[in-house]
Design goal:
Length: 205
């Protein structure tokens, strides 16, 4: 499989589990054993929600590293409601866009374009005005260390698809990275760099 398709499938898996940011269950459901949450854990989850709700626009870079050593870089943009852009740097030719109606995967080199209704993808949660907690995702681990919060979640009904760990700095809360372990136990880490929020972006992302 070429690196462009690897990039696509890695990102698509991220989309499938990325609703963890916006749908966190705090009780046992299906075959997933939920992490018992302390009062402080619940308060911190609410702080995460408030932080994500407060993001209206965002731009920055990313460094994506897989467990086999492959590294890719690119740029990410978000404008609520409905718009998102995830673009890999050359020589990769992959571009992913949410335009308010569709999630669009574009491979410029292969001249391949795929459209999926945005409302049918987890990325829809990312570009909504407000975060909604629901039972689609279960918190399986909550770790706190000086200046860092880590929240690990799995899909409630499909825990075998893997997990994602969101890593935030604390005081103030900022999303720094996410770590995905897929169904094949392959780890992919995405480090966010130079993130800015509340910036003016072209509405034609």
């Amino acid at each position: 499989m070429n690196s462009r398709l690897v990039a696509f499938f890695t990102w698509f898996f991220f989309l499938l589990v990325n609703s963890c940011i916006f749908g966190i269950a705090t009780s046992q459901a299906g075959n997933v054993l939920a992490k018992p949450l302390s009062l402080q854990d619940k308060k911190d989850l609410m702080r995460v929600k408030e932080y994500l709700d407060g993001i209206k626009t965002l731009k920055g870079g990313f460094l994506q590293i897989s467990s086999n050593g492959n590294a890719l870089t690119g740029k990410v943009y978000l404008s609520k409601p409905g718009r998102f852009r995830f673009e890999y740097d050359p020589p990769e030719s992959v571009l992913m866009i949410a335009d308010g109606f569709f999630f669009i995967y574009i491979d410029k080199e292969l001249e391949h374009v795929t459209h999926v209704f945005l409302k049918n993808t987890p990325i829809n949660f990312l570009v909504k005005e407000k975060v909604e907690f629901d039972g689609d995702i279960t918190v399986t681990k909550f770790e706190r260390s000086p200046g860092v919060l880590q929240i690990t979640v799995k899909k409630t009904q499909e825990p075998e698809t893997g997990s994602i760990t969101l890593v935030f700095s604390d005081n103030p809360i900022l999303l720094k990275k996410w770590k995905v372990i897929d169904a094949q136990n392959i780890l992919t880490t995405v480090n966010l760099t130079g993130i800015q929020t509340g910036v003016d972006l072209d509405q034609n992302l």
